[in-house]
Structure formats: structure tokens, C-alpha cells
Amino acid sequence: MYELMQVSGNSYYIQSPAKIGLVRLNDTDVCLIDSGNDKEAGRKVRQLLDQNGWHLTAIYNTHSNADHIGGNQYLQNQTGCRVYAPGIECDLTRHPLLEPAFLYGGYPPKDLRHKFLMAKPSDAQELTAACLPEGFEWLPLPGHFFDMVGFRTPDDVVYLADCLSSCETLEKYQIGFLYDVAAYLNTLETVKSLRARAFVPAHAAYDYYTRDFKKGLALYSSNVLIMEKCEELLPDHFNFVRGVVDSQDLQLNISRETLQHNSQLRAIAKKVEKKITSELKKMRDNDREEYERFFENFGRGLEYGIYTSYGMLKDELADLLLFYSAKQQKLITLDEYLEAAPADQKAIYYAAGESIDRLAKMPIVKTVLGKGYDVLLCTRDVDEFCFQAMMTYGPEPELDAEDKPVEGTGPKELKNVASGDLDLASEEEKKEAEEATESNAELFDVMREALGEKVERVVVSTRLTDAPAMVTSEGGVSLAMVQVLKSQPGAEGLPDLHLVLEMNAKHPVFEALRAAHEAGDDDKVRTYAGILFDQALLVEGVMPDNPLAFAQAVSELMK
């Protein structure tokens, strides 16, 4: 509970009894769509904000039910954020006593003045279009409550408040509350025609990636239900599939233990898996727009399937994956990447980070693109783990007359552009960089000592063109991967990063470094080294260990 789940781009939700929307407005500022059911929910949200270094600017309430505004007061007191609510909902948010009074037709007795019916009051302002962040849109969704609204974010994600409920919710409560039935029916018609990249109902079923979610297909024998959710019929990476399997060959009184070892069931499961894969490929080839929407919502599970199987399932699943191409500026498959690649390309190149915009601006990405090679820009937390498990991708090598592999054919290695040697430089460029590294050995020793354990080496780069420096990682663990690991519970004991600071010997900054060293001003060299290292981290989307020291060092140089 209270896990932060990414929907698309900067649009997230927090898993809670009534899902809380969270949208990143920039690197530091976020807003919420609703705030949860009580002060404790507010505390959980505050913890998430602090963990990520985010500042809460505003809460946009969809409506005034207590389970949607219960965290308002706490978060407003803690952060000073603004609270907005639409129409009548604003009055009820400011005076929550009105909700149980409305529901029960009089002043509510003590037993009805609890957090499930009456939230703490918050200083709400009426919602208008001018209050919304740039690119946001609010959608009237009346019926469940007076002036309930939903919100569409710039990522084309729509938060639907309480206009839809999952089967689990309806089974739990049996009946949903409707203030205006006619308005609600109109809202349902409106929602039916809405198009968006993704929808987030407040009371949706459990997320597909939480431990509480249970996969499975309904299993029948001759039209008689045996099991509502037979987990054995679906692998984890297809947990989003819903359906029914009806077999005449299964016994009605078969036990769960027997099912788990039933050869017929295993055969059915294999056929189901093949059928799902086939249908997904058809969608990918015949309705690309629809498939992209599907992949945005469920592609993460396919990648987990490859990762958790240590790459064993890549032959079955890799063809279904989509990644953003820096060169083509659209989502493409790995096959489409290889089809467009030059004949001499030795690897499939990718970059991993938080956003496509930031990745596209990385110096090393620009360098690889300048060589004529495409780069896949990966923003999912599982992308790099998936590629690490796959290791290679592509058809088997062609064979010559002696059945020996033809050079240049066969699977391509998957390489992170910010990790290790990309082998893009010519022999002449490599030799030039080695000689420059040797001739500046004393300068680099001073820089490495200044940086301490942060870097293994300082070298002259063969791949930088415009930027003064970059940080690369040697070995199998990249900076982006470490950031993902750090965000997980139990992040202690992470593998050591072997970082290298690569310098652009043709950049004016490098000349300034050499001049300072030759003049005996090694203090300036040390200051430069720290600034360049932190600057390179920022380009990678990684916050320096001491941002204050970085800012002070920059200020000192500007005097």
C-alpha cells in the first residue's frame, strides 16, 4: 500500500484505498489529484515526497468525499500547498460537516462524525481553468457527487475519480452511491467515448504489479465453474489477461493440488500462452496505435518476464517490446531498430534515465547519433534490467560454405551508451586519446585525488564532442540502474560503481585545467574536478551528493 506507480511520463498514482494521483510538474515540483482518506494517508504521501526530494505545490480534489480529501489538512499544514475543488465540492471541502449532514438529512450524531464520512476541513479555493498547471484539463463527471470532475494530464492520462468502480469494489459494497442518476448515466456515456493513453479510476482493481493482485483465468469444465482464477493458466508476464477456459476433459471435483500437476492443464496453458502472443503480434502489426497504448500500460510486465527468467523468455517476448528511438523519434521494435541500422553497426545502443527529453540531450547520445547509429531512450525502471538479462538480440548468424558464421552477422550486443567502451572510435582516435591521457597523467592524478573514491580513473575521452566531461561506469552496473536500485526497499549493500571521469581534451575547459596545473594552482584544479564531476552527474539525471557544495564552488569561480 502507498506504493508509487508510474502510469506514463510524469503521471503517477499512489496505491491507496482511493488512488491518489501524482504529477511531476518539473524536477522538484509536483501536484496531487486528491489526498487520500485521512491524516495517516497524508503522512504516507509526505514520506514519498521527501524520499524523492519533491515539493508539493497544490492538491486538486476531484470531489469532496472524505476518502478523497482526508489528507488535505495535514499536507496543507506541512507543505503550504494550495487546495482546489470544483463548484459545490469546494464548499463541502471547506466545511466537511456538510457531507454527513447531506447524506443523513440532519446534524450528524457523534457516531457519524468519523473519518470515513467527515474529513478535516481544509482551506480550499474554487477550481477554475486558470488554477490548473500548463497542459492540464479538467473534465466534468457529475452523478456520483455534485460537481465531481476528472483531470487529464499533459501525458494524456485521465484520472476518473469515482465515476467507475471495479468488480471488487462493487462486490464489497454491493451498491454504489449516486447523487444524480441521470447525470451519472450521461457521465458514463462521456467516459465511454473518451480517448486517452491511460485511465486511472480511483477505485480500480489492484495494480497488476502489486503483491495483492492475483492473476488467472476462470476455469470451467463443461460450462461448470471449477475455479474463478486459475493461476496455472497464465504466466506472470501475461497477468493482465482476462478470460475463460472451458474444457470437457477436466473432472468437476478436481482439487487444487491435482490441478497443479495436471498434464492437460499444462497443455492448455501452453496453448493459451501461444494464443496471447499471437494476438499481441497481430495487434502490433495491424493496429500500431492501439498496440502502443497497450504497451504503455502493460509492457512493463513483458520486460519483467524476460528479466525474472534471466533472459530465457527473450525469444518469446522480445519481439513484443517497444522502445523510443532517438533517431526516428517514435516507438519502435528491436527488429525495426536493426532493419534501419547501418550494415557496419556492431551493437544495439540504448540510454536509460528518467525522461526522453533529458536522455536525448545527453552528450554521449548525441555522439552516437552523430556516428549514424540510433539510440533507444529507455525510461522504464525495468528497461536496463531487461537488456542486461537479454544480453543480445537478433537473428542467428549467416553461415558460409564451410558452415562458419559470416562476420558481421548474428545477434547484436545490447550496450548502454553511458557504460563501458562502445568501440566507436577509430584506431587513430584511440591512440590519440591514450597519448593525451599519458601526457596529462600528473593533472589527472590531482583530479582523481580531489574526487577520492568517487572515480576509479580520469582519462581523455574518445566519444565527447561538445561537452567538457562525462561520467561512465565500468562493469555491468550503470548509474541509471543504481538509481533504480536505491529507490527500492532494502537498498543497502548495492554493488560498487566503478566510475570513470572522461575529459574532452578539445574543450576550452580542459585547456583552463591544464593552464591552472602548469601554473601550480592545483586548488583551482581540484575545484574544477568537483564541478565537472557533479555537472556530469546532473547531465545523467543524478543529484550530486552535496548540491550545496556544488553551488558554492560554481559561485566562487564566478567572482
Mean pLDDT metric: 85
Sequence of strands across the biggest β-sheet:
1-2-3-4-5-6-7
Number of E strands? 23
Distance between the termini: 50 Å
Broad structural category? alpha/beta
Kindly give the count of domains: 4
Layout of secondary structure:
Layout: E1 4-8, E2 11-14, E3 20-24, E4 29-33, H1 39-52, E5 55-60, H2 66-69, H3 72-79, E6 82-85, H4 87-94, H5 98-104, E7 124-126, E8 137-140, E9 149-152, E10 157-165, H6 167-173, H7 181-193, E11 198-203, E12 217-221, E13 224-230, E14 244-246, H8 256-260, H9 263-286, H10 288-308, H11 314-317, E15 323-325, E16 330-332, H12 334-340, E17 347-352, H13 356-360, H14 363-370, E18 375-378, H15 383-390, E19 392-393, E20 412-416, H16 427-439, H17 441-451, E21 457-460, E22 469-474, H18 479-486, E23 498-503, H19 508-518, H20 522-539, H21 547-558
Helix pairs in contact: 1-3, 9-10, 10-15, 17-20, 19-20, 20-21
Keyword list:
39% helix, alpha/beta, 559 residues, 7-stranded mixed beta sheet, Ribosomal Protein S5, domain 2, Metallo-beta-lactamase, Chain A, Rossmann fold, 21 helices
In a nutshell, what does this entry contain?
This protein is of the alpha/beta class. The protein has a 7-stranded mixed beta sheet. Strands 16-15-18-17-20-19 form a 6-stranded mixed beta sheet. The two termini are 50 Å apart.
